[in-house]
Write a structure and sequence with these properties.
This protein has 122 residues and is an alpha+beta fold. 29% of the residues lie in helices and 38% in strands. It is rod-shaped, with a radius of gyration of 22 Å.
Length: 122
């Protein structure tokens, strides 16, 4: 009887620890994912796209799974993993003028896209 009670307590502790570990994991994953809503624009080169979020921050977009080309000129929400963020003064020469117009630049590897509107309102 005593051994059964100890086994129950140990099992309850293990289950509590497992539940605690699962509760903390999703918040870690959320910090690695970013959603940006704005007007999807074509970049200067093939397969280059950008978006300026409602907060004024601009992102260069890359994706091997989402067809960004199909949504150029649409207001969209893109979700993905930030791969780089840089302030205007950190950009290479020739990109500083572009960066100076925007609060900050980053690069987002897009994994999902949802269309908000078929056109962008200025």
């Amino acid at each position: 009887m005593f051994a059964r009670m100890i086994a129950s307590i140990v099992l309850a502790l293990l289950m509590s620890l497992a539940a605690l570990a699962q509760d903390t994991k999703p918040s870690d994953d959320q910090s690695k994912t970013k959603a940006v809503t704005g007007c999807l624009q074509k970049g200067d080169q093939a397969d280059q796209f950008s978006i300026t979020g409602e907060d004024g921050k601009s992102w260069d977009l890359r994706s091997s799974t989402v067809k960004l080309d199909d949504h150029v000129g649409h207001k969209v929400t893109v979700t993905g993993s930030p791969t780089r963020e840089a302030k205007a003064e950190e950009k290479k020469e020739g990109q500083v003028e572009n960066a100076a117009r925007k609060e900050a630049l980053g690069e987002l590897r897009v994994t999902d896209l949802k269309m908000v509107s078929p056109n962008c309102t200025k």
